Amino acid sequence: MARFGGLIRKLLGIVVLGVPLWGCDDNGAADYQPDYTIKSSVRENSYRFSCPFSTPETLFATYLPLVEYVNARMGGPKLKLEASRDYESFEQKLYYRNLDFALANPYQTVMAVPNGYRIFAKMADDSQFRGLVLVRRDSGVQSVDNLIGKAVSYPANSALASTLLPQAFFHENGLDIKTDIDNRYVGSEESAILNVFLGNAVAGTTWPQAWARFQRDDPLKAAQLKVQWETKSLPNNGWVARDDVPPEVVAKLTEILAGMPNDPEGRKVLEHIMVSGFEPADDATFAPVQDFLRHFNETVREVALP
């Protein structure tokens, strides 16, 4: 827990018990009203599940079909989808072991392990887990040097594909991210993109899934932006389970997730969330993430390490 606490302190400066700071929940059904609070980890008749990749509203619209698909096949207690305000409050929930299950970015995935979570699955499509740097088409930005002295918007300090990978890219191309650019962490993928559209930042970072969703949902705004650079890829987002969740429940969920591409209804849900499938995973799967974080910590800027 101390290691995960290091991540929170670096992100927040100080952790205040009981204060909701850090997503997905319902915009209609009473059973899925957004719940931002930090609560006891005592389980009632459901398994608490969350993920941090977007605003609560977008995340609910994206991931509720997955939860409903799983719940129709689980038997026993069901997954209960809940929201977090932002990345940091989601990470607080992992730190306090409030969540039974989480679908987390790879950084959060490896940080959860020493805090009493186990990795059991992940999103497929590792080639899609990379950073994108967006600029306005009329910006005139051609080289990384054009960003010097300018604002760059990111979803969150700990977003691996959308923040750390682009910052590593900037570093590899000659920028000192601590002094050469104005780093703005704006809270969500959508906000990072919109800050570029509105001219509040000369560049903004995201990842392919969020960019594809933005293009689908707001094509007129998206048409005024372009991907200027792409980064290398890492293992995709991971599923973690708290270590007191019965192994047979974790095994059942793994089976359901892995079988989705073989089921017409499952394929429809996967298409909705823009991933080809889920696959079993463990600590070794995310070794490249550990290596990246160590190198990033040594060369780009300080981050908490597992």
Automatic annotation (TrEMBL):
Stored Pfam families: Phosphonate-bd (PF12974)
Protein origin, superkingdom: Bacteria
Protein name, UniProt field: Phosphate/phosphite/phosphonate ABC transporter substrate-binding protein
